[in-house]
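Page 47, continued from p. 46.
Same chain as before, 160 aa.
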Amino acid sequence: MQQAFTLPADGAGRMPQTPAEAVPSRISPGGGLPGRASDGGAAAAASLVRAIDRLEEVVDQETTALRRRAQVDLKEFNTRKSHGLLELTRAMRLFEPEALTEALRVRLAALRARLEANRAALAMHLEAAREISTIMAEAMQKAESDGTYSEAAVRAGLRQ
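Result:
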């Protein structure tokens, strides 16, 4: 379900004319948005938590599938992770680094750990694919070769 967003009027009743006027700059260490009610910080934090939750879910699904050696649509997972990263980046832009609570820092650290586990699983998958392609290339080369230029034939002096 997609949320509808409305642009609030400024103090003079004028609608914002540019995106920069419509979007608050950042959450300050005090927790509120500049010129907004104090619950703006809580709403931004909730948005960040939702972004982290969704990204963790996608990363965990891919990591689990790779570890189980299940068939994985890497393109689909890449698209979903890219969307999650975009959402996370947009949510993070509202925060000054010092405004992040300890709970949010812990969540971000947990996300980083999940991403590292995902990277390791992807690296193992990629290495396995490389090994298989090397074996297949060598088998095809042997099947197509008549032995004329093989190392054994050259060493034996049969071919030059």
